Amino acid sequence: MAESVEVLITASVLPSYAHPGDAGADLHSSQALVLAPGQRALVGTGVSIALPDGYAAFVVPRSGLAVKHGITIVNAPGTVDAGYRGEIKVALLNTDLAEPHTIAVGDRIAQLIVVPVSRATFIPVDRLPGSQRGEGGFGSTGLTQHITGTDTSGDNQ
């Protein structure tokens, strides 16, 4: 079982895990609104947290909202730093081109994942060490290369 961490919280509705073993706790809307096709809105959750040092929380989309209604988060994942004490708000986007989506107070609109984080020490160098992947970027390990033998090591970014 994963380590548990205590998070201090003020909330109109507490985030909750739907099932044992879930990584994300559901965040609920604290306001009612209608998202028109293509519209985005910053939606309150009524939740403020105090994370311990060495932790961050990430606000991520709910897969059911994305698949069934085209509702996602514009800046997914949204990052909540340990020092932030304000309300967690979610930048929702309706990607459906035809249908508006109604959100009621209390609807589950996102998930909150709390994770330990490491702080990096950045060391400037003139050249990075090599790796098997090298500079291969977006699409450099795509299926096309495997099936057709197409060279994808060129500029595909």
Automatic annotation (TrEMBL):
UniProt record similarity statement: Belongs to the dUTPase family.
Pfam families recorded: dUTPase
Names of required cofactors: Mg(2+)
GO molecular function, one term: dUTP diphosphatase activity
Keywords: Hydrolase, Magnesium, Metal-binding, Nucleotide metabolism
Enzyme class: hydrolase
Record protein name field: Deoxyuridine 5'-triphosphate nucleotidohydrolase
Comp. bias intervals (Polar residues): 141-157
